[in-house]
Amino acid sequence: MQNSNWPSTPYYMCEESLLRANLEILNRVQVESGAKIILALKGFAMWSTFDLVKQYLKGCTASGLHEALLAREEFAKDDENLEVHTYSPAYKDEDIEDIARISDHIVFNSPNQLFKYYDRVKEIDSDISLSLRINPEQSSSPKDIYNPCGLYSRLGTTLENFDERVLEYVDGLNFHALCEQDVDALEDVLQAFEAKFSNYFKGLKYINFGGGHHITKEGYDVDKLIRIIKEFREKYDVDVYLEPGEAVGWQTGVLVSTVLDIVHNGMDIAILDTSAEAHMPDTLAMPYRAMVRGSGEAGEKKHTYRFGGNTCLAGDIMGDYSFDEPLQVGDRVIFEDQIHYTFVKNTTFNGIKLPSLAILREDNTLDVIKEFGYQDYKNRLS
């Protein structure tokens, strides 16, 4: 578990070859279906990889001003064919003009917001494309916290609240209803979306199918996705966008940590120099059990340990893992699949050091591209 050539932990390591493999799958969907796939920065925002990503994808989708700035500065600045789409549940007066200057598409969450800001964004860019987010009220999202179509959801406009006057102002409609789901879930959502809103498709330029498509996961029926997109495009004569984030970063890298101490309190507990709370937040929010390289379930192998983070939060626990050999202080522990929805959500809770960011290049060299320290903690405070 130890390698003297590894950098100081903790660090995330993205593998370029794995990222390219995902991008090849996504590009196949684009080529064979005619859809445009854009990167959702909320799930994967490792901008040091954008030179590779933009060889395949058509742009980025942002969740507000700062993500839109990142998309414009690091993804789309040198190519007018690369698009920046921006969506927010509600825009602020002080942000909307800057957003209009750097976005090719703005997605409004409600008719109220569309009517409020239409004139202002069009004065800045008369060619900017506008759309409205729809809530199709159909989702099989596995957890309520990630269900944008759940009861009392604030995300998107339901049929009951749809104002037909928006059709004079929009170029497209968007829906987002999935979370780590397969193409059958998309098919169900699409049927509900069409049943409620297809009367309004005439004259639209595009429909955005949102994110949550687990396209790069093993077993995903890519052929069926391509077929569904092609049939939809032909039926309604519109362009189709997809905006996955997780599917881009899925299984492309790891979080590497070190065992700092091993204590015993009813069971062996290994304290690591990383944190579920600060560095792997979805393991607690989802929740889910992150896989650890070389491990088994508790009791499956000879030596079982509970992994805990190096913060004062009692619940900062990654889970219970077993190993063939006993762990030692100083051993490296590798958490699999930790490139998406991890460092985009990091915090400096307790002043714990943020993990460094590294890229394993396709020529097998390892570049540490960003290290964090005290100033990153201090600058967030006052």
Q: What would you say this structure looks like, in words?
A:
The longest helix is centred in the N-terminal third of the chain and has 18 residues, at 16-33. The model has no long low-confidence stretch (mean pLDDT 96). The strands form two sheets. Strands 2-10-9-8-7-6-5-4-3 form a nine-stranded parallel β-sheet. A hairpin with a 3-residue loop joins strand 11 (253-264) and strand 12 (268-272). The chain has 382 residues and is α/β, with parallel strands linked by helices. It has eleven helices and 17 strands. The radius of gyration is 22 Å and the shape is globular. Helix content is 27%, strand content 22%. Helix 1 (16-33) packs parallel to helix 7 and helix 3 runs parallel beside helix 4.
Write a compact overview of the structure shown.
This protein has 382 residues and is an alpha/beta fold.
Count of alpha and pi helical runs: 11
Count the strands?
A: 17
Q: What ranges have pLDDT less than 50 throughout 5 or more consecutive residues?
A: none
Q: Report helical residue fraction.
A: 25-40%
Notable features of this structure?
382 residues, alpha/beta, nine-stranded parallel β-sheet, eight-stranded mixed β-sheet, 11 helices, 27% helix, 22% strand, globular
Topology:
Layout: E1 11-15, H1 16-33, E2 36-37, E3 39-40, H2 50-53, E4 59-62, H3 65-74, E5 83-87, H4 93-102, E6 105-108, H5 111-124, E7 129-134, E8 172-175, H6 183-197, E9 206-208, H7 222-236, E10 239-242, H8 246-249, E11 253-264, E12 268-272, H9 276-279, H10 282-285, E13 303-308, E14 317-323, E15 332-336, E16 356-360, E17 366-370, H11 374-378
Parallel strand pairs: 1-16, 2-10, 3-4, 4-5, 5-6, 6-7, 7-8, 8-9, 9-10, 12-13
Antiparallel strand pairs: 1-11, 11-12, 11-15, 13-14, 16-17
Helix pairs in contact: 1-7, 3-4, 4-5
